[in-house]
Amino acid sequence: MQIEFVASVAVITDNAAASRALYLDALGLPLKQLDGDYYASEEIGGCKHFGVWPLEQAAEACFGTSTWPQDVARPQLSLEFELADAAAVADGVAELRSHGYQMLHDAKVEPWGQTVARLLSPEGAVVGLSYAPSLH
Prior knowledge:
The protein is an alpha+beta fold and 136 residues long. The protein has helices spanning 16-26, 55-63, 86-98; strands at 5-13, 32-35, 38-41, 50-54, 77-82, 103-109, 115-120, 126-131.
């Protein structure tokens, strides 16, 4: 697997208003509302995408439900690694599985065109393998 760059970092929060108060108001990050309570920016130097991702939306993206499963560690961070193309995401999933990792979901195409597959890291972070055409 060839990682091209870190595509996205997002804190995952169960209190979106409090997190926005820190990152948007106190730190002054140029975050914009993208989807419901999801705020993000592509205007922070050194980072392609930084977001404040509500836990409900993370659960929907990973499990298709707004509730994070009780038997899966609750994440506090999402980290996505960008690959060369959409096919590399599926190949990366196969490679991770060959090393014994269990995926939260296989490669899928999101409505905005990103192909992504995710797993939960030993630290409890949602780690994605991603290909977003807009970043290339």
